[in-house]
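job 3f2a | input accepted
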Amino acid sequence: MERSGLRLQLMKQQALAGDIVLLFADESEALTHPYLARAWAKRGADLRVEAPGQSQKIAMMGALDFISRDLIVETSQTKRSVDFIALLERLDKIHGPRPRATVTLVLDNGPVHTSKATRAALAEREHWLTPEWLAKYAPELNDIEREWKTLKAHHLAHKTFENRDSLKATIDADIQAINSSRKAHPLANHRISA
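job 3f2a | predicted structure (194 res):
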């Protein structure tokens, strides 16, 4: 794990210098029934929020740009390879082939990322997109994990959604609000003069 961490630090420095575009990708899910986060209650009390019907979930496939801090999210009802490939297709439109800098996509070894279909989709993009595989069981190395935590704890917590459509609309609006309030990394494209 230390080796992966050192390699990521080097890539972050390359991204800060403008030599590469560094993206951290992973998936998560959101529920129509509320998340309880940072709520006050008497010691030993069981916190419950009334929520009608069965809980439904939405899968979120996302990529975080290390420099711009933009979060790109594709939502679907499932968390399968075809859903992750939809994220790759969206990255095609945003980053596509660039003559100046390659795009490095940091991935964990989850089944969605290592399937035959996903590997084939990554191979089709090998002229401009380089996957960087994280060590197994090292979510602390993937910067997007903090973004999922923020989204769930500060934007989706303590809310009940009628259905998947209302949850998806809220996720889309919250991602847009998060992205518009962010600033690019302050050290981006600054080189040390000799």
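job 3f2a | The longest strand covers residues 20-31.
job 3f2a | closed
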